[in-house]
Amino acid sequence: xxxxxxxxxxxxxxSVSKKYGRTVALQDAEMEFPEGELTxxxxxxxxxxxxxxxxxxxxxxxxxxxxxxxxxxxxIQLKEQVAFLPxxxxxxxxxxxxxVIDFHRSQFSNFNYDKxxxxxxxMNLKTDTRxxxxxxxxxxxxxxxLTLARDxxxxxxxxxLSGLDPQSKGYILEILNxxxxxxxxxxxxxxxxxxxxxxxxxxxxxxxxxxxRLQGYADALRDEHNLSIQDxxxxxxx
Length: 238
Known about the structure:
about 240 residues, Rossmann fold, 4-stranded antiparallel sheet, 7 helices
């Protein structure tokens, strides 16, 4: 792993293992995520990406090993300091977009209501629309709105592009790029879809069968292997 001299981790994963019955989700996983960068956590379905992110935000627990986020051990204090975008949403179909935004404002003291409304407008989400009438792509956009409206240091996103139409993927990637172009914020984004998003990566961690296969700065990996990140994933995972 090649590190910059200024590498400062915003999160550390130390020898983490997790099983579900006899299924191994993570096995002695060891990695660090740099502060102020967009880190892509790349791997095929079933590689352990979602399990790792859920451990990092306290939704499940590791069997062995430890995780440190923002210099803190996992605990309830991280709820206000990390914004998590889950792969599967849990919206109530009877609610309207504006009601979902209001609900999240009541849950988090660092939720910026005006920013949420602005982001919804930028993503062509009408606030008077019922959740039941939103397409999967629009629901994906709403998840992003709710996540980015939080004023936190770390945003963790589990497969935000999975199964979305090309237009929604484009919206999400452009919003992510514009939101974090100025730096200062850290993003960990898991994905198995690389082609559309690799130009935004600062740092890359490749995970397979619950173990780290490759990690490093995206540009350094491209130079070292003379391959795009997309082509490098084919080489690593095949």
